[in-house]
Amino acid sequence: MVQSTDPDIQRQALAYIQHQAAKGMSDLAALMERTGAECASFLEGVSDARASFGHGEEWSMKEVVGHMLLAGKAVNREVANLVEGGRVSPAGRTGLTEGGDRPVEDLRQALAALWAETGRLVASLPDDGDQQRTWDHPWFGPLNFKEWIVFQRLHALDHLQQMERLKQHPDYPEA
Q1: What is residue 23's predicted lDDT score, i.e. its pLDDT?
Q2: Which of 70, 88, 107, 154 could form a disulfide with 135 if both were Cys (CB 3.0 to 4.6 A apart)?
Q3: Which among 30, 114, 126, 118 is positioned nearest to 85, based on CA atoms?
Q4: In Å, how far are 13, 76, 96, 97, 136 from 147, measured between CA atoms?
C-alpha cells in the first residue's frame, strides 16, 4: 500500500479501518499491543548493516522505523487532541526525517516505547468519545480518533511489508 494510487486498495484499507474502529477501546488497546509485538518481532536479529540497507529510492529499515516513530508520535498527539477537544494540526504527511543514523538497537527501543505509549493512550480513552471530530488524512480523508488508532496498525503493517521486501532483495546483506 505504500504510496499506492489504486482506489480498490484505498477502499479496502478504509473498510478495514472503519470495521476495526467500531470495536471498543479495550479491543483497540489489544490491537495496539499486538501491533507493537509484531514490530518488535520483525526487528529481532536485524543487525545495523542489515537495517541500513537500502536500494534505489527505497528507504532502509532504519529510515522506515524513523518514519514510523515520527508518524506514530504525531498520530498519538492528534488522537489526544481529538478526544480532549483541542485544536488539531492541518493535514499533512510525515516524511522521512530521522532514523538512518541511529543504531538499530536504539530504534528498536524507541519503537517499543512508542507502542507502549500508544497502548497507554488507547487504554485511557473513553468508549463513548466524540467520533464526529476528525483530523484529515492525506489519502483517506477525515478520520475520527478511533479510526486514527486503527490507522496506526495499518500504517505499521504496511511498513513491515516494505521492510520485508528489503529482506528479500538479492543485495540484502548476509547474516
Answers
A1: 95
A2: 88
A3: 126
A4: 11, 12, 23, 25, 11
* CA dihedral of 136, 140, 143, 148, whole degrees rounded to 10: -100
Among candidate residues 44, 72, 57, the one with its CA nearest the CA of residue 166:
57
* DSSP bridge pairs for 136: 142
* Residue of 10, 9, 8 whose CA lies nearest to 138: 10
pTM of this structure: 0.91
Output the pLDDT for position 5.
Answer: 72
For the chain, which domains are there? Answer: 31-168 (1.20.120.450)
DSSP string, 71-137: HHHHHHHHHHHHHHTPPPPPP------S-TTS-HHHHHHHHHHHHHHHHHHHHHS-TT---S--EEE
Report pLDDT digits (tens) over 146-167. 999 999 999 999 999 999 999 9
pLDDT tens digit string along 79-97? 999 999 888 887 666 666 5
Positive or negative: CA dihedral 110, 20, 2, 76: negative
**Residue 121 pLDDT greater than 70, yes or no:** yes
Residue 88 sits at the vertex; the CA angle it makes with 142 and 29, to the nearest 5 degrees, is 70
